[in-house]
Amino acid sequence: MKKILFLFIMALALSACSDSYLETVNKNSLDMGSFFKTENDLLLATNAAYCPLAEGVGDGYNKRGMFGGAYLLRLNTLDPYMWFESPLAGLDQLIINSSDTEPFWGSLYAGLYRTSDCLARMTVLKSTLDSTTYYKYKGQLQALRGMYYFYLVTWFNKPIYYDETNVPSNPLMVYPNGTPEQFWNKLEEDLSSAAKTLPTSWPDLEVGRITSGAAYAQLGKSLLYKHYEYYLRFGKGGTDEATANLQKAKDALKHVIDSKVYHLILPITKTKEDYQAALLSNSSYLPVPPMNSAGVITSTYLYPAENNAESIWEIQYNDDDRSASGWLPGDMWGGNMNYMYSSTHLGSYKNLEIDPTLWFEFETVTSHPAGYTRDPRAYATCYLDGDLMDWRPESGYKIGFQSGLNSKNTVSLNKLYLGDVPSVSMVAKKYSYPQFVGKNAPNVAPFNVRVIRYADVLLMYAEVCYQLNADADGSGLAALNEVRARVDMPAVAVLTPAAIVHERSVELATEGHHYNDIIRWMYDPNFGMDMAKLFNNKFNKAKNFCFPIPQSEIDFNKGALKQNPGW
Prior knowledge:
This protein is mostly helical. The protein has helices spanning 39-54, 70-78, 102-121, 131-156, 180-197, 212-232, 240-258, 272-280, 338-342, 356-361, 377-381, 413-416, 454-469, 475-486, 497-507, 514-521, 531-534, 541-544, 551-556, and strands at 82-84, 311-315, 352-354, 382-383, 427-428, 449-453. The strands form three sheets. It has a two-stranded antiparallel ribbon with strand order 1-3. The chain starts with 38 loop residues before the first helix and ends in an 11-residue tail after the last helix.
């Protein structure tokens, strides 16, 4: 059994029911006045605050919210380097309905409510718990809420704001839009506080809880985004306040680097087998052995996978609870839906394929120690015809990838791209290697989702250094080149926006980051985001800088909540 944290607790139910239909007291719910009396109550409530990241809320399709399914599917569909199975319609053409964003909205507000409500109620325990224990829980709740705030403000612009001082208690009350400042200020407060109080690691049975390093990483990421989506967007770039914000972002990311808790997963030997195993361990659910093109394992060493030294913030999934099938990732069972949408499993939907322009974004190289002629990350990102999908004979997938069988091939590279492509179709290898073939596969997959890994931190640090003082001390360039050195790609001589864009594009490809990156970079002309070219003239900067607020929420709030511009 994987030693993970994955607890599904929101309310406590009593088994007894009244026989009288005239009874007005609800015997099936626990009075909140009798809750938050013990540390165990606080533990259960804190555990519940993690769940919205893993599961979904809403009805039917929309229950696949956040990292349980919607995030990777929707964000990769919006990525110009990815093709949806119907390439001329839908999200990949920026045809976005408010219902498309309901999974995000619902999950994020479930998280915001649970964290804020718990932070408000837990104060009654401050006098009975020792300080370390009390702030261990408070830090987790603040870090979680910081992430919820971050996605709400970057995706929804001016959504509903509240915190522990005004937690909604009347289901009939209507709420107006908040302001970006409320979100940015509170998330910084939350994450800064959490980073100082959380431990650097947790015991094995609690792996998956948020650490100090995760809070610092999310703080640095949030303040980096704030530079673009607040200061540059509103014409405040270059002010003392904007400079101070960048310095805080740099300090937070540097704290993660200087902690020495994390490091890149490096190849043990300079062979293709080891490069691929090291890279793929960051999206696998099993430790990965090196193996050659014939599927023969070439070493006894296993590259650690989930919660390894490169993982900083990771959403936990498992295959232990597999008795129920359905559409409720992180709810009816411990797995997620990502593998169902995008994997090479024969039973998957195979919704997404890789645009060949991504393949050509990976640089060609000469004199590579393993004999590569292209950046090794290309082969750890893209399934090509003939690529092995599993090393285990019992999986039934110790065969080569086949376009049209392990991909839908509705997006044929030969038809839609005139170029020297290496495969009839290409599919993301991350989160699809090795194959998962357990009970109820492919719709119950145990792949943990890596939200922030150390390579991401190094590249964000490089970006902050460029924005702060043009990387005067060279530490940003060194961080970027550390990522390149992992795969023995030649060092970049000068830190430029082009170098930053390229490195994030290839290192984090298909991990759901690229669309968010493009949106923030468009506010800085030095990054040269040609939005018309990237999105086939479909992008409207006055509208597509954010997502639409779900119409159902606007209707429920009776006009007090206003839709974002253009939607």
